[in-house]
Amino acid sequence: xxxxxxxxxxxxxxxxxxxxxxxxxxxxxxxxxxxxxxxxxxxxxxxxxxxxxxxxxxxxxxxxxxxxxxxxxxxxxxxxxxxxxxxxxxxxxxxxxxxxxxxxxxxxxxxxxxxxxxxxxxxxxxxxxxxxxxxxxxxxxxxxxxxxxxxxxxxxxxxxxxxxxxxxxxxxxxxxxxxxxxxxxxxxxxxxxxxxxxxxxxxxxxxxxxxxxxxxxxxxxxxxx
Length: 225
Ligand code: CA
Hints:
By secondary structure, the chain is of the alpha/beta class. It has helices at 10-22, 33-42, 59-68, 84-92, 105-124, 154-165, 173-181, 191-203; strands at residues 2-6, 26-30, 47-51, 75-79, 97-100, 128-131, 134-137, 142-145, 148-150, 171-172, 212-215, 219-222. The strands form 3 sheets. It has a 5-stranded parallel sheet, sandwiched between helices.
């Protein structure tokens, strides 16, 4: 398991490097946002530990750029910022967990283990996802039902991928906005419903068994029946 630690404080950076290496991880370190982004351009990581207060940019921007580059590995935010607002903002902008400094190494290791476990399935998975006769090719970004190619926009594909990854589980509008749009949108907006409607017209076309189900007042679930 390969981790990237982005932290400008050299003492903390080395402490993390040593602690994580001793725990069996392969660790790369970056002292600022620019060098972190240079690394993620070259390497694939299983997880990120990112300090928010970096000398050249905000850690949240580093996370945003990683996500935009297609990195889906879990992110543990490390920060001296303690307020609830800061935590919420961090988690909304692509962080998967948040720890405030000072922290205990044992707790950090436990959280990293936990995050990697959650991230493990998508990381190790094949290039195809399947539910019933619906198949997603994640490399070609193509969806098929049976032998029929389903023409989707990039956003529709991302939404369908999210539903398929969570097949059998109800996902709320807020979860979809957070994970598919990855930005702060008023949950009262109907953007999700509109996209689901369009997606359904394509995926669950006439004559096909419906896979996308509405759970009234809650959200959506993709499942066989
Ligand atoms: Ca810092």
